[in-house]
## 1
Amino acid sequence: MNRWHRHRHQRWHGPGRWHERCEGYHPSLKKKLLGALMGCLVVGWLITVACQYSQVSNQQNAQWDQSLREVGEQILLSLPADVGNAGRKPRLQLEHEALPPQHGPEFYKMQFQVWALDTGLGLVNSAGAPRTPFQPSMRPGYSLLTTEQEQWRVYAVSDATHRVQVQVALPRSGLRTEFLHWLKTSLLSGLGIVLLLAIAISAVVHWSFRPMQRLRAQIAAREPTDLTPLPVAGLSREVAPLVYSINELLERLSASMQGERQFLADAAHELRTPLAALLTQTHVALRAGTQADARQALEHLSHGIERTTRLAQQLLDSARVDASLRRGEDATVELADVVMMVVREFEGQAGRRQQSVAIQSDSAQVRGDLDDLGVLVRNLLDNAVRYAGQGGRIRVCCGPDESGQSTLLRVCDDGPGVPEDERERIFERFFRGSNGNGERGSGIGLSLVARIARSHGARIEAHTGLDGRGLGISVRFPRPMA
């Protein structure tokens, strides 16, 4: 297992598994939505309570000030014209027993005093009023009085002739008691409404996510090889496009798996014949009567092993290219260097066939994967060496094309070539064209070249080779952006 496959294996099958890590790092969308809605609800409720607190507090203060003023003015208007003479007699004061039954805390706690301004004597006062004035300075209007027992809100009003002054006061403890009563009632009722809304929101969110929960259950119950499209009935408009995209991915994955199955079947078929030939040549070598027969059988066995090794290498390269995930990690590669290294690898094989390999290369950079480009050049040169024939000529050209807009890689030979009506099909997997030198190919090399070229955005074409014969293959790569 190479480094890339080992990394992917650990990523998906390592400790904790990938989906458990996802659940650990990414909260549930349902929980996030519920949390956001509940947070907004609570914040909105708190803001509402704060606004009501400020508004009611101001209204209550204004209401009590108005009540003090109305009561003070009514008392002043109710005084007799000779109220000044009351100062020469004992103070007029009602006893508690003389008061009528009380129906509210506000008037029960409200106190008043009537003072003669010229003599400073108290004329009339309520039962709970203190002996001293609420407003010692006798200044009309609103004021605050703090005593040892209580803090009072006071309103003082004088008659037009400035003979008497009425002072009305209300203890602030009564105001706070009433306000706290309102606040408690408001908070409890508001909290009840918030709880009811929270239950309603939770039910609505749960109901909205039911189609996704059913979809999740259906996916979890599927077999690993079940790639049928997911149902889209009942999904919301926001979720349906995601499911459609997943279905398209499943279709492509199904087609890819079908291609892999076909590839495995074809590969098994391709390997069956050379393996059977190897077994036959082994038996012949074991039963050879003379050393010459044994040597001949061993030579055939060596050729068969070489062909099987080449076929196995091409199958592995093809599988690696098909499974490769091009994630934009390509680098700028000097194609001329790749060509030089591959040509050196084939010098011995070309020499045994008495072939000449000419190289014409200039600096040519392409954007791509170094390993894939090496496989592409190796298969092009292998195809030329195998089919050029004994004593054939091969030419490899690498460099900018005539327009300077592309990088051109061309491999030509002067062998038997390929009929013109078969040139488009030589890039199909497991296609073997009719050739004149007796070589039997696997039909994998050029199809692998075509797939690598497409993955790099290159165009590939087959044409006539050297001196009007043979086969030439050109691959045009886009020039990398500066």
## 2
Amino acid sequence: MVKIFSLSVVLAPPSGSCTVLSNATDLSSFSFYQRGSVGEFMTFLSRTVAERTPQAEQLAAVIITDQEYPVRPAFSLLTKILDDFTAKVPQSSFSNPSAISFSEINGYIQRYQDPRQADTIMKVQQELDETKIVLHKTIESVLERGEKLDNLVERSTALSAQSKMFYKTAKKQNSCCVIM
């Protein structure tokens, strides 16, 4: 089952420690007693990844998923989050992270649990796969229908030959008698 556990927008200055500006988690797959420590670990991991990854800008987006989540939708989701965050949150508010309100991140984590929503190429690929299955079934039924038609043609030919023989036999039988 593909799953996104955490999405974070992190302020990563060139020197110093990173600060999580906005964060959303989905810890429903963990037990109630594990959720607190798992959430803290994901926040720690997000900050550590942002600190150790060189970036051109001060902002970084971090996603934590299971192994089955595809890479391309994850990167497109991260790009979309950073674009929306920079458009809605002024850079002057980065100095006070508690005042930042970016509630859209919660919608992203819910909406993009299905990677086909994040990646239109995956969505089109799935539609193509479904269409291919339908076409294969249609071709199989056409071939079966063709075999049935061939069978009907053979039966029709045999029936035609039998009716000709019946006609000839009936004609011979009737030639000896006179119908009044």
## 3
Amino acid sequence: FTLMGIPGLESQHLWLSVPFSSMFLVILIGNGTILFLVATQPTLHTPMYQLLALLMVVDLVSTLTLVPKMLCLFWFNDRDIAAGACFTQMFFIHGASVVRSALLVAMAFDRYVAVCEPLRYNTILSHALVRRLGLATLAKGALLILPMPLLLQRLTFCHMAIPHTYCDHMAVVKMACHCTRPNRIYGLFVILLVVGLDLLLIGLSYILILQSVLRLNSQDATWKALNTCSAHLFVILVTYVPALFSSITHRIGRNIPPHAHILLANLYLLLPSLLNPIIYGIKTKEIRDKVTKYMCRGT
């Protein structure tokens, strides 16, 4: 296949590489810092931070799968990508999105236990359960996304030039000559299952949290309970709002130019990876204190 980059903005590819390469560096530093802190600080070896560390790993995998090839395209006009590499990139990019969503469900359950069952937190969320939750999220991503490249391998492609910066599933499907209804139906099924079911479970967790918080007599206790969920809520907004906006504009925004769709598709993949460590760094006192300690030690 040949990745065309951003149609209509080919002459601006070099300039576009500046914000994308800057985001790439910030993502590597931010996610790497959180991982380093969780790995080296015993006080952060708790279920919440273990799930957060796994989220950082998924964000790094998604970014490292997406951005290097994009920058090669922008900097060196390296557009060609082998079919196997294309399908592999597709698997890891879309798989990471599914795992990220599943981790947000697991983290919502973590917040529910922390607020509604604080005395039994360590009993319910044991290290063994956290490991099982982590493995379940990875299995969900792999099992749901693996059929996508497998279904594509049965097709013959009439066009090899993909108008995109990466091997997006639907962008590749549109290159096929044969009937692609199974591919389209399965892609829609994955979106509805992941977004619909995961948001339903997250919403249920926060309904139960809100019911528990409203029963508290102390305003300080109410504020403290809500504050424990603030970072997770911000991450949910950063993850789902750009993705839903991109999906809606792709389906109903016929008057929106193609380059806007492609830029949105890249941003909804990169924004969570960019903002997640910043949100947790600002909203979580333990991480903020550890970062401050290392910065002061460095000076």
